[in-house]
Amino acid sequence: MKQTGFNPYMPSWEYVPDGEPHVYGDRVYVYGSHDRFNGHAFCLNDYVCWSAPVNNLRDWRYEGVIYGRSDDPCNQDGKMCLYAPDVTRGSDGRYYLYYCLNGLSLVSVAVCDEPAGRYQFYGYVKHQDGTRLGEAEDDEFQFDPGVLTEGEKTYLYTGFCPSAYTDRTGARMVVLGQDMLTITEEAVTVVPSSARSAGTGYEGHEFFEASSMRRVDDKYYFIYSSVLSHELCYAIAEHPSGPFAYGGTIVSNGDIGIDSWKPAELNSYFINNNHGSIENINGQWYVFYHRPTNSTSFSRQGMLEPIKIHEDGTIPQVEMTSCGPNAGPLEGFGEFPAYIACNLIMTQEPKINKLYGMSPFPKITQEKPDHVPEDPNDDSAYIANMTSGVIAGFKYFDCRDLKNVAVQVRGMSYSGKIIVTTTWDAREEDAVAVIPVAPSDEWHWDQSDINIANGINALYFRFEGYGSISLKSFILS
Fold it and tell me: Can you tell me the distance from the alpha carbon of 446 to that of 325, in angstroms, rounded to the nearest whole number?
């Protein structure tokens, strides 16, 4: 892996959304779903794990497959998918993986002696009479389990509450005993659904899915995806069972709500569902979340950003960046892959030649099929379908005495150019560089002088011209 930290923080060929980060020993482990590039549904692959040293989030290691789709007795034919999981360390020192299969209202559990070893099926969460959670008369649908273990108690949070499901109350919590399976305290609702939110303070940000729990000093933070879907919100309580008070939005995978560099309502990336959590890693809190790619909901990639937790407990919303795990801006010198774009903005209707069936939407995609390459730096990712007015944004770079910028592109662009600016809505006359783009169906380099102030800068690459291009990388020198 490169020792420069990029977002997405895993390699460009990996698709692990719904990330639950946990520090065990001197490493942080990320557990999540596992999408397939160009897949037709969510979570088509087996669970894998990635880890990094707590003092270097630029150095991620592939731990391999930790649990397979057919390892669950209810899914021996492997036809159901493994949805978003979570892991906790039990009082016995072992690691317990909680998950749901799509289509079943059950919470399954697997166990392992190591954080990233091969987990073995252990059982199903159950009531004291043996009825499995999700199958009793008063149970609600089980989905996206989040777990927190303190002492001999494990708190399990689940729920799936689309706005149309008016019979569901919200995110619910049960307490498990030391066997990590049996419910010792029955369900309470901790964050309301849309149907139950009137007068609660959650209006407009009610619970949808993606339950996760973290302790921050003496407070408990419930992290969840709201009914808006693209945002991760948080609620705070003094006890794992609540009562929880709405806190705010931590991150949106379209930067909706961020108004420091654009209108708050403008989405700076194509929004989709979101799922993740927060974790204290080597003294710094981070939020882990995901973004869609490939013009689909089914090829999602993990992202992370450092966050601040104020003394009053609030977490200001953070913007998406290209450098989340880098512990600061990227060095503004060298070659950078285009897939680390944190913004994709369409400023006008694309000029489409329907005869050739060109997609109207820009997308981060890859040339190779879903794979785990022998070389972890094997990289075929790029931005496709940059039609006139499309902006690819990269943030941030520490620029020092730059003289030249070059782009690796291909596409049949006529009278095309890439306008490089430091604000997303800058005019061409305020550009720091204008790069003429030659038409070609092969990757090639075009370049221009650059005139940019020293210091921390965002860079926006806006294509103007007829046709469509793809952008693979760029060089600052």
Answer: 30
Q: CB of 432 within 8 A of CB of 235? A: no
Specify whether 18 is catalytic: yes
- pLDDT for residue 349: 67
- CB contact at 8 A, 205 and 222: no
- Percent of the chain scored above 90 by pLDDT? 91
- C-beta neighbour count of 76 within 10 angstroms: 10
Nearest to 301 by CA among 332, 268, 324, 280: 324
Task: Give me the half-sphere count of Cα atoms (radius 13 Å) on the Cβ side of residue 373.
Answer: 13
Write the DSSP assignment of 123-184 as a string of letters: EE-B-TTSPBTTSSTTPPPP-S-EEEEETTEEEEEE----TT-TT--EEEEEEE-TTSSBEE
Q: How many CB atoms lie within 10 A of CB 398?
A: 15
Verify whether residue 446 is a known catalytic residue: no
Within its chain, how far is the Cα of 319 from the centroid? 13
Provide the token pair at 189.
Answer: 């609702």
Q: How many CB atoms within 10 Å of residue 19?
A: 27
Question: Do you find a cis peptide bond into 17, omega within 30 degrees of 0?
Answer: no
Could you please report the per-residue DSSP string of 373-430?
-SSTT---EEEEEEETTEEEEEEEEEE-S--EEEEEEEE--EEEEEEEESSTT--GGG
For residues 174 and 183, what is the distance between their CA atoms, to the nearest angstrom?
7
Tokens at residue 122, please?
């252990």
Residues comprising the chain, all counted? 477
In the beta sheet, which residues pair with residue 475? 335, 406
Cβ-count burial 199-232 (b if 16+ within 10 Å, e if not): eeebeebbbbbbbbbbeeeeebbbbbbbbbbbbb
Active-site hit among 35, 144, 209, 231:
209
- Note the pLDDT tens digit of each residue in 10-66: 999 999 999 999 999 999 999 999 999 999 999 999 999 999 999 999 999 999 999
pTM: 0.97
Rg (CA), the chain: 23
Task: Tell me how far apart the alpha carbons of residues 182 and 129 are, in angstroms, rounded to a whole number.
Answer: 9
Looking at 14, 18, 305, 446, which residue is catalytic? 18
